Amino acid sequence: MATLPQYKQRQIARRSTSDISKLAKQYKSNLDSITGEYQTAFTGYQAGVTEQMKPYEAQIAAYKDSLLPTYETQKTAYKKKLDDYNVLLAEIEKNPLIERQGTRREAELLPSSSPHLGPGGVGGGLQYGFVERPYTYYEERPIPKFTDKAPKTPDIPVAPEIAAFDSTQYEAKKTEAGSALKREIGERRASKISAVSRRNARPLLSGAKP
Q1: Helix residue ranges per DSSP H, 63-167
Q2: Which of 41, 73, 178, 202 has its CA 20 to 30 A from that of 88?
Q3: What pLDDT shows up at residue 52?
């Protein structure tokens, strides 16, 4: 059978265990509350980020589905024209002259003319006429100008700058809750040690005989 001092010690121990258990439950409740606040705030933050990203996502979709394919088509067409132009320049360099056919008037002695004079010196002499004769000539081949311009590369959409979620206030609350728990437990232990010390100093209070 437990003596009175032992009974009181057990009561103190049970109260101490009960107090710590309550403190632990309160601490867990505080953490749950802080976690709930954090999750609510973070959910709102994510919704805001989603809303801010919508224009950028639309721009990226347009870039991939329309702007970039159009640019690639234009670039291919431009490259073909440039290649054809370079081939033409090579041909001109190899054969810089173009052969042409033309006609020109040339004087020709008429078959009916005679170098002898007729009676009285009239009706005689050489007679000439003009005829069109073909001839060949050469011209420099003109060098054409390349006037096509390279297509402009479409600008890649830039994502908006979005600030990171600020969780410092929730971390501070968790730290404060943990500190409060340690402080309460420390105070209760100090109180228990003080009570035991007083009993040891005053034996009558603990049931001891003088």
Answers
A1: 68-94
A2: 73
A3: 95
